[in-house]
Amino acid sequence: MKTLALCGLTLTFFFLSASKASSAIDVQAPWEGQFWARTQCSTDSMGRFSCATAECSSGQVSRNGNGAVPPASLVEINIAASGGMDYYDVSNVDGFNLPVSVATQGGTGECKASSCSANVNAACPTELQMIGSDGSVIACKSACTAFNEPQLILLH
């Protein structure tokens, strides 16, 4: 499982539990943003970085301001963005590619973890499946993305 943890109000820290890799960024309140986990990433012979899911289309590990191309499991964090309150959630509005969770460390209040820990890919309907180069289901599209029908479009 990919794990994302919010530490304090001005430092966001995240780590990938399978690899133990980690990174931290400092942010100033108010701040809001999204994090997502990309899968099956590689660098080609020309040095262009790309991923099979949640691709940022920057050609680099850094997203350079680009968002994730769906399907992508999202972690959304808002620090002091709504009347000084912090909030966070896990969203599958843009589909699902990996189980993710977000939790606080430190601070005050009764904040609980938010997660989608199930492997949605295992139960993804055929018409929503994103198939990888090896033939396996690597992501599950949202109905909005798969069918592009106005009644299915979800607004963020």
TrEMBL record:
Keywords: Disulfide bond, Signal. Gene3D superfamilies: Thaumatin. Residues 1-24 form the signal peptide. Disulfide bonds join 41-51, 124-140. It holds the Pfam family Thaumatin. It comes from the Eukaryota. The keyword Signal applies. Belongs to the thaumatin family. This is Thaumatin-like protein. It comes from Lithocarpus litseifolius.
